[in-house]
Fold:
Amino acid sequence: MRLSNRCFAVTGLGYRAPWSVNAGFITGDETTLIIDTGANAAAAATIHGYATTARPSNRLLALDTERHFDHIGGNGYFRARGIDVYGHASIQRTEDEFRAEISEFNGEISNPARRSRQESQVFYHGASLANPNRPITEDFRMELGNCEIEVLLTPGHTPSNISVYAPSDGALYCGDCLTNGYLPNLDAGPIDDWRVWLKSLERIAELAPRIIVTGHGPVATGDEVPRMLERVREILQQSIEAGRSPTS
Ligand SMILES: [Zn+2]
Structure:
């Protein structure tokens, strides 16, 4: 969906129940930056198709908002087409980890006959592991052609979390730093990470975005933005006080 002059979201890409995962892209006059590559090759092809159609003459770049496979499973699709993928320098996933992800995915198939036939292979058909080839270690600005965007470190959910802000359109892509409708996933790190996460939320609040594409859930606009920020902040605060995540 088109969110603004330059910003688009590709929402509801398949993942595992009850989750769907989002991606998006920002179109400058010369370059289109894709944010997140989906969980599998089919998602990557969908994102690639929309991004190419929106501005066919643009060069494409991609960026991962974090290390989890629901956001980077499509990296191989983009790298195979010579498209550079930015991501936090700590994203160095291994083939063993990718195989474990597929096997965990398979284990969640409820029908035993489908599980024993390894039908997760259908979901991951054509997907291959590729780590980002453009490591990010600090905040920076990127020029997309009459459109300068900000790439910001927003750790917390994982230490590798990154957000992208397009000031011209007031649109922020923040991956799983925020989730809309879903409980945020606090189970990927310890309490110290949750405290860091609160600081990242402060950073986001200071930007005062008008539109937020979260890692999961509907795009937030207008009054929903501060409401969603406050809801995730409260869950983090309560979890820090209780010493446990809401989903542990
Ligand atoms: Zn996610």
Observations:
- The CA atoms of residues 103 and 233 lie 33 Å apart.
- The pocket of zinc ion is lined by residues 21, 68, 70-71, 176, 215-216 (CB under 6 Å).
- The chain has eight helices and twelve strands.
